[in-house]
Amino acid sequence: MRRLKRARDLYPLTGLGTLVLALSALALAIGMREVDLVLLGAGAIAGVALLLSLATVLLATWRVRAALRSMPPTEAPLVVECGFPVRTGFWLPRLRWLPGAHVRWRWLSPSAKVRMVARAARLEEEAMPTSRAWSERLARRIELGDAFGLAQIALEREEARAVRILPSVGGLKQMHVVRTLAGGSDYSHPEGSPDGERIDLRSYNPGDPIKYVLWSVFARTRQLVIRTPERALSAARKSLAYLVAGAGDEPAAGAARVAVDMGALGGDWAFGADGVDEPAHTKDAALEALARSADTPREKGGLGLARFLRETASSRASRAVIFVPGKPGPWLDGLMQSASQIAPDATGRLPLDFIVCTDGVKPRRARSRLGRLAIDAEDAGSDAPVAADELEQVVSKLARLHARILVVDRRDGRVQVA
Fold first, then answer.
1. Do the domain assignments include residue 209?
2. What mean pLDDT comes out for the span 70-89?
3. Are 250 and 395 in the same domain?
4. For a designed S-S bond to 212, which of 150, 226, 386, 389 qualifies (C-beta 3.0 to 4.6 A apart)?
């Protein structure tokens, strides 16, 4: 199959060119037999145009091949964020000396939109990746053709260059929500650590922050009383974060990147993602896991969560923040399967908090309980907005796990409790 594709790429005529060749040969044959000067002239003109197109494409191919052979290898890795154009340093000649010739190319892997920028005698490449990736090679397809569309030759070039494409953060500049989910408590306990909300009271002691004094109580009783944190039964000491890969997961990857970049996971944390075997404990390793998760087969999304929790959970209390797509898919069943292997905490709930990430929600006529999340359906990134029905399906299924669910819009950073 690969040989057939290669042979087709090197076949110099397009479908239109093959048709013109056949009609030209037919016109010449009939014209010579019938001594029809009109058919002879038409066949000859078509044949000459076809020969000029072939000559143009063959000369263009020779020139481009020469430029590729003389191009030095690029050793510097290409690091870019999805949705942002970048000059890669790759270029090809403009072929201005060859009338009618044109050259264009695209990325085969990873995925990116490519724009050719004319500069002097060169066409310089400007690429804008559309999805995250972590690759050691960059493959391009170069197409050389003529102005009439009669001839074309395609070349595939693979470059040994590291490509690091990170997910876009969009409007998510911070991720305080992760710290809120990872810390705190399920309910208070008199012998726990004071890490909950400031709802307990005690007498004022020298050195206590004055801003926590209850002045209304002082006005009535003339006694200084301050607010103190409630004592938590199982305050989280270790933060765990996990990215579930699936269709429309770029917003979730962007939100997870913000959590890692901004240090929102705290001092002791672990990060995992579908398609990545080892948990990450450093920022660089976590970003690599984020990018590599894009290669996860769709049918395996969500299946690695249970193993990740078994490997990273310790004797200290910990909660896991799970970043999931806003669009349903096979990952949802895989996640439910993994959740069935996780033991509940002392409150009877799973020690999981879900962050459902979208690039906006398409509104619908019938308002639902998620209707307040609906915004204009404009495409602001590599993933289109999800439909309100799809988002509600995801939230409804996750709600069966009795876990806290937040919906985050990557476009403007809006956070809503589902």
1. yes
2. 89
3. yes
4. 226
